[in-house]
Amino acid sequence: MVTVALVGLGDIGLGAHLPALLRSAEVRLVAVADPVASHRDAASALVDGVVAVGSSLDDALATGPDGVVLATPPWATPELAIAALRAGRFVLAEKPVATSVAAAAVYDALTAAERARLQIGLTYRHDPAIRRLESWIGDGVLGGPLLVRAHIYDERRDPADGEHLDRIRGTLAHGMPVVHEGAHVFDWLAHLLGPGGLSVDDAWALRTDADLPAPNLTGARLSHPAGHRVLAEFGWLTDALPRCELTFLGPRGLATLDGATFDLRLETAAGEQTVVFPGERGPRCFDLQVARFAALVRGDTVAPDPDLDAGLAALAVAERVATRAMDGVTA
Ligand SMILES: NC(=O)c1ccc[n+]([C@@H]2O[C@H](COP(=O)([O-])OP(=O)(O)OC[C@H]3O[C@@H](n4cnc5c(N)ncnc54)[C@H](O)[C@@H]3O)[C@@H](O)[C@H]2O)c1
């Protein structure tokens, strides 16, 4: 049984990682840690006294886990990941791997052996819907080239939820939605569209409330060397949100991925089909992610999936969009 500590007991730590770790028959949770007392209290209530509860990574490492799951913000994650790797542990670190390419340069100091113990939390990469899309595109079901439209809208502003507003405003201060959400989307596109990076043709940003620390809506037009075009939009913190979905349109068909459920729809000349995978998208992906991490720790797989390079590649595209978008924005 692989032993694991969870560090970072905020929204995704408590809401998704902790339940997935507790559900898994392959790992045993031995410690949880967070500097915020109320977050530790909330976790304690869920783990019912059976694991050590601490306030730092060091507290978690002191319990001797094989692996550490870092559900921490991207401005804290690089330092924590490097410390845990240097302590000889396997690490599953949340995306984005850092808030900027410059901030991610600290990972350059990792040895090959340390990098081989670092899996990145590009969680939804594991979903069977992404695999199905990959086969539709790879098998030519849609034809090509493709027009991809990614409408990634999340984190609706709820005036009654001050905690959520403060958290997302705090995250926005460290980068526009494209930096945080783009980690997933540009990883999927790298997978789905194949080799060769996306180049940014143009980009825009819009701050819908003057008191927000950065523009909360961003978009870009991107090109892929194989001829595909991508129109991507990312948005947070409006009182209502457009539908979150990705569409892949080719000469032979249209595939639609529901951004919330990951239900898939395929329309071709042969007709229409809907593909719904069992279970909810969130638990489904977090469970698959834990299983993959446990396999890495046990040595059943030799390379982390996704690895640091995948996290860095997605961050680089997101940053190119953010930089290009801000070219046209006066502060
Ligand atoms: N994979 C996914 O699907 C997914 C979904 C949502 C969020 N995320 C990512 O997860 C990360 C956390 O997001 P969140 O919404 O849970 O944020 P959050 O602010 O709710 O939680 C972060 C937690 O980390 C703790 N923390 C901060 N610095 C720490 C340190 N040095 N040591 C230990 N704990 C520390 C904070 O106290 C907080 O409890 C972000 O990078 C976010 O992008 C990933």
By DSSP, the count of extended strands is 14
C-alpha-based Rg, rounded: 20 Å
Using the coordinates above, name the CATH class of the largest domain: Alpha Beta
**Order of secondary-structure elements:** EHEHEHEHEHEHEHHEEEEEEEHH
CATH topology of the largest domain: Dihydrodipicolinate Reductase, domain 2
What's the number of domains? 2
Tally of individual helices? 10
Report the portion of residues in β strands: 15-25%
User: Alpha-carbon distance between the termini?
Assistant: 52 Å
The residue fraction in helices comes out at 25-40%
CATH architecture tag of the largest domain? 2-Layer Sandwich
Which parts are unreliable, with pLDDT below 50 for 5 consecutive residues or more?
none
- Main β-sheet, spatial strand arrangement: 8-9-10-7-11-12-13-14
Mean pLDDT: 96
GO molecular function: nucleotide binding
Protein name: Putative dehydrogenase
InterPro entries: Gfo/Idh/MocA-like_OxRdtase_N, Gfo/Idh/MocA_Oxidoreductases, NAD(P)-bd_dom_sf
Pfam families: GFO_IDH_MocA (PF01408)
